[in-house]
Amino acid sequence: MTRTPGNPTPEALGPDGTVHVDAEGARVEFRRRYPCTPEDLWSAITEPARARRWLGALHGDLRAGGSYELRMGEDRPDADDVAHGDVLVCEPPHVLELTWSFPGERTSHVRAQLEAAGDGAVLTLVHTGLEPAAARGYGGGWHVVLDQLDDDRAGRPVRAWDALYDERRGRYDV
């Protein structure tokens, strides 16, 4: 079953993503355009000081073979909302692939691909290997995170997670 609120195809650009659930698990996919170059978007995603403004505290070694830790709430390694994993591919400024381990969940896979598009950059984010029960939450969660990235790249104040999550999550009823 695939749920795509607002977008007729996964190739469409817009705020909504797709959630696909089948016997193998769940997949969440987004394609978003940002008002910057791929190099600037790459920097916003991978440089700890910039990622902290919209995503959380990023620690580690973002190179192929390295590892990372993303502290999305409090900047403590023992907090409840810390993701960590291994960097599988790092090809600046185009591709970042990682494993994603979050407390209480099986390890999944995240791929971010950036490309130039006119006067901006397009980010395609695909999160695979999710448990079906987690699909709706990840659809809403990645939606919020990408909205926050958009706020940051557009020079607006970054909206709070709590102000956005419930409404965004509701779009991904699978």
Q: How many helical stretches?
A: 4
Query: What composes the largest sheet?
Result: 9 strands, antiparallel
What coarse outline follows from CA principal-axis ratios?
globular
Number of strand segments: 9
Poorly predicted ranges: 6-11
**Class from secondary-structure proportions:** alpha+beta
Percent of residues in helices comes to: 25-40%
Q: Could you spell the SSE succession in H and E letters?
A: EEEHHEEEEEEHH
Strand order in the sheet with the most strands: 1-2-3-9-8-7-6-5-4
Measured distance between first and last alpha carbons: 7 Å
Q: How much is the radius of gyration in Å?
A: 15 Å
| Chain-averaged pLDDT | 91
Percentage beta strand: 35-45%
Task: Explain this structure.
There is one protein chain. The protein is α+β, with helices and mostly antiparallel strands and 174 residues long. It has helices spanning 38-46, 48-54, 135-153, 161-170, and strands spanning 2-3, 18-22, 25-34, 57-60, 67-71, 82-91, 95-100, 108-117, 120-130. Helix content is 26%, strand content 36%. The protein has a nine-stranded antiparallel beta sheet. Helix 1 crosses helix 2 (48-54). Residues 6-11 have low confidence and may be disordered.
